[in-house]
Amino acid sequence: MFVSQHSQPPTQSLVELIQLCGGTVCKTVRQAGICIGRYSGRRPEGSRILSEQWVLDSITHLKQLSYDNYDLE
Predict the structure, then answer these.
(1) CATH 3.40.50.10190, applies to 2-60
(2) Could you report the per-residue pLDDT of 17-33, keeping only the tens digit for each?
């Protein structure tokens, strides 16, 4: 996944949380199927933009939650 530079909590904090929980964070949105936080640039077809809350809720529940309630598009 890719974390937007406009995310709240700050990008670096989310990246650290994701990595501590075993997730992989990409440096560019082109490498990722999921973008966390608002992103207005070009991105691969079929990729999703999810709210930061999805990451936080998934960590809280100790599992990857459904994307349904977290889509930003």
Answers:
(1) yes
(2) 999 999 999 999 999 99
Considering the entire predicted model, what is its pTM?
0.89
State the DSSP H helix or E strand holding residue 49, giving kind and residue range, or none if neither.
strand 48-50
Unique residue bearing structure tokens 């991105």: 43
What is the reported pLDDT for 17? Answer: 96
DSSP state of 45: T
Helix crossing, 11-20 with 52-60: angle to 10°? 30
Q: At a CB cut-off of 8 Å and minimum separation 6, what does 58 contact? A: 64, 65
CA angle (15 as vertex; 71, 53 as ends), nearest 5? 30
